[in-house]
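pls design
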């Protein structure tokens, strides 16, 4: 009986004797495995990117937007703040306004909030401080507003003029002192209501006073922990709906409710689906290369059987059985697959690193990819080598020696 060590020695000898042929055989596997490994790694990197993007908008958040005017007031705000596990809640209002700085006028989104929004929205200041609930005509500028929107950069403690148009069409203008500039965010892909770098934040009470209104455009809320986000969101949804006369049985009917509510948990679920879809797409494309590689192994192994007819006949005459011949060729295919898997996994690692560096994504390379890449390659080598090995084992020794 042929020992494994003997089969391994003979297979390595055969591979070494035909270096070019062996290299061409493994090339398809190397490319296929590299594509699979790189694309799985890219999928993980995209997933982490989405999670980081979401985290940049605040932790454990819930956001509610009104779809009508005169909908949200202080009673809804108090109901939200009194909900168990709500850590902070801020009323919000968004409106486009004319902003003047040194005779230059730009149309910019103004975000009215309370002081709590600094923590709720994960606002990081480059300079200055966020306004308090006692402040009135003060403003926090996004980095893009401060440094890019106007002909001259706006500095900390400068003043700007903001002009709103009321609901009746009347313009109202007032001067605001800049008390803080928001640090340029690292991520901008996902937005949950306030793109901080391109907006100006002012106290919502001041904004409502200028507009001559008392209602809010919505609420931004943060919850104590991630596990509580969805149940707290459901509880707030019930409270808001009840206050607006929407029955509990119609809570799932988005056409009935005059507001939109979403939370971090829901968005994470959607991002997970998106990431899974991207990873599946990447892997599907990569598997095409792997299939081509496996066909390449099979074709070259079949050619090898023809070229080594005399060798097979000689081995049979020396007492090698069909199973021995079968083992030799399968071992050779597995070794080729293993070599391709190791090189392909390394190439995939390098390729994925280069891709995420260019795309600016976090580099994620799960360690299981080493096992996955090499395991797939060995499996492909085994499957692709079975038919040629079986064909080789069935050759008649006398006929093989005669043809050889």
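designed seq:
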């Amino acid at each position: 009986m042929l020992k494994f060590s003997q089969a391994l020695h003979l297979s390595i000898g055969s591979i070494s004797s035909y270096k070019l042929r062996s290299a061409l055989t493994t090339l398809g596997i190397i490319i296929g495995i590299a594509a699979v490994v790189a694309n799985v790694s890219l999928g993980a990197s995209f997933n982490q990117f989405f999670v980081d993007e979401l985290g940049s908008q605040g932790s454990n958040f819930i956001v509610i937007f009104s779809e009508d005017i005169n909908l949200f007031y202080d009673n809804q705000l108090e109901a939200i703040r009194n909900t168990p596990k709500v850590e902070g809640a801020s009323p919000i209002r968004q409106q486009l306004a004319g902003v003047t700085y040194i005779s230059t006028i730009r149309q910019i989104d103004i975000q009215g909030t309370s002081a709590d929004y600094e923590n709720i929205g994960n606002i990081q200041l480059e300079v200055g401080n966020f306004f308090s609930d006692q402040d009135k005509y003060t403003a926090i500028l996004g980095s893009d507003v401060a440094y890019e929107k106007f002909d001259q950069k706006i500095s900390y403690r400068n003043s700007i003029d903001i002009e709103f148009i009321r609901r009746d069409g009347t313009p109202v203008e007032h001067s605001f002192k800049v008390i803080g500039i928001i640090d340029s965010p690292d991520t901008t892909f996902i937005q949950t209501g306030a793109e901080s770098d391109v907006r100006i934040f002012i106290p919502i009470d001041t904004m409502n006073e200028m507009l001559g209104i008392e209602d809010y455009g919505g609420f931004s809320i943060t919850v104590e922990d991630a596990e509580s986000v969805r149940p707290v969101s459901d509880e707030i949804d019930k409270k808001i709906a009840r206050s607006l006369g929407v029955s509990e049985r119609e809570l799932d009917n988005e056409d009935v409710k005059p507001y939109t509510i979403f939370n971090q948990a829901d968005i994470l679920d959607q991002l997970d689906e998106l990431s899974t879809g991207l990873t599946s797409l990447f892997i599907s494309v990569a598997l095409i290369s792997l299939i081509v590689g496996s066909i390449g192994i099979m074709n070259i192994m079949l050619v090898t059987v023809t070229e080594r007819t005399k060798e097979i006949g000689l081995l049979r005459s020396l007492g090698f059985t069909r199973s021995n011949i079968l083992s030799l060729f399968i071992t050779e295919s597995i070794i080729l697959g293993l070599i391709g898997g190791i090189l392909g996994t390394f190439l995939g690692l390098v390729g994925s690193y280069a891709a995420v560096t260019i795309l600016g994504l976090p580099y994620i390379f799960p360690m299981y990819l080493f096992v996955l890449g090499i395991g797939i390659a060995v499996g492909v080598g085994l499957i692709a080598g079975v038919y040629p090995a079986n064909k080789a084992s069935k050759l008649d020794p006398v006929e093989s020696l005669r043809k050889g």
